[in-house]
Specification:
- This protein has 277 residues and is α+β, with helices and mostly antiparallel strands.
- It folds into three domains: 49 residues; 111 residues, no CATH class; 91 residues, Endonuclease, Chain A.
- The protein is built from 13 helices and ten strands.
- Strands 7-8-9-10 form a four-stranded mixed sheet, sandwiched between helices. The chain has a three-stranded antiparallel sheet with strand order 1-3-2.
- A hairpin with a 3-residue loop joins strand 8 and strand 9.
- Helix 5 crosses helix 6 and helix 7 crosses helix 10.
- The mean pLDDT is 90.
């Protein structure tokens, strides 16, 4: 394998020492750099010209992509972007990063390998818990659990700070999207059972509140055949004693009081309970 192929298979940005460990000669590396096939970043890193700019910037600054930026990099649900987030050792010297970058200086829960440019998921979750609003942190944590990227059991064995520990005690892996997580967090004060992705009469619903109140959230895909099936299933649920409230994505994110109004009035009328004859 030549130097360029090795760097490509390693994610596009690697420490130069890795190439030496693989038995690749410095002459071959130098030729790749001279030919423009590899870029030298600082003294210890090499990158492909088309490598992820975020990883290249992290290598150049001597930091590691972490917190919300690492969550997005790993494909986790993120409620809203909040700029670039990186991590560094607690006593690292001056760090030259782009304006607006948030640098987290803290002891990681999981040791960071010198070759890593994206933080371990456990470290990401810890920083998320202490960096962004609690509601948004729940979205990231439940996404990691839902995608089976980490387990509650493994997290409980870590030395977590207080806020991360309190989030761990409440998160669940059942929500199928970040939006469902946000809704559950916002409705916990009701003191009712909140069950995301409940399976009712042949289909899953976004949220079952109590025994009989169903909340469905329409996104951009709820058109055509999907919309027709949604209407059919709503009718089936109604005929079987359920009450369905259907709202849109933007109502939840931009006009939550209107959604809360509908839900609390339905609860006040007992529509979340099984009707006794």
């Amino acid at each position: 394998m030549d130097a360029v192929e090795f760097v490509r298979r390693s994610g596009g940005v690697v420490r130069g020492a890795r190439l030496k460990e693989e038995g690749l000669s410095w002459r071959a590396v130098a030729e790749a750099v001279d030919g423009g096939h590899l870029l030298r970043i600082r003294r210890s890193w090499l990158a492909l010209p088309d490598a992820d700019p975020t990883l290249r910037a992290a290598a150049r600054a001597g930091v590691i992509v972490s917190c919300l930026s690492a969550a997005e990099h790993r494909g986790l649900w993120v409620a809203r972007g909040r700029g670039m987030h990186v991590a560094a050792a607690p006593h690292a010297g001056r760090i030259d990063v782009a304006a607006g970058t948030r640098v987290h200086r803290s002891r990681p829960a999981v040791p960071r390998h010198p070759d890593a440019l994206v933080d371990a998921l456990e470290n990401v979750l810890v920083l998320v818990a202490t960096c962004i609003p609690r509601e948004e942190a729940f979205v990231v944590w439940e996404s990691a659990l839902n995608k089976h990227l980490v387990s509650r059991e493994a997290l409980t064995r870590l030395d977590l700070p207080g806020r991360a520990r309190s989030i761990l005690e409440e998160v669940q892996p059942f929500a199928d999207s970040g939006l469902e997580t946000i809704i559950v967090v916002r409705l916990r004060w009701l003191g009712l059972r909140l069950l995301p992705q409940a399976f009712l009469h042949g289909h899953r619903v976004d949220l079952l509140i109590g025994e009989r109140l169903v909340l469905q959230i329409d996104g951009a895909h709820h058109v055509g055949a999907q919309r027709a099936e949604d209407i059919r299933h709503d009718a089936v649920l109604t005929l079987n004693g359920y009450h369905v409230i259907r709202v849109g994505y933007h109502q939840v994110m931009d006009d939550w009081p209107s959604v809360q109004y509908l839900i609390t009035r339905a609860v006040a009328q007992g529509l979340h309970l099984v009707r006794r004859r």
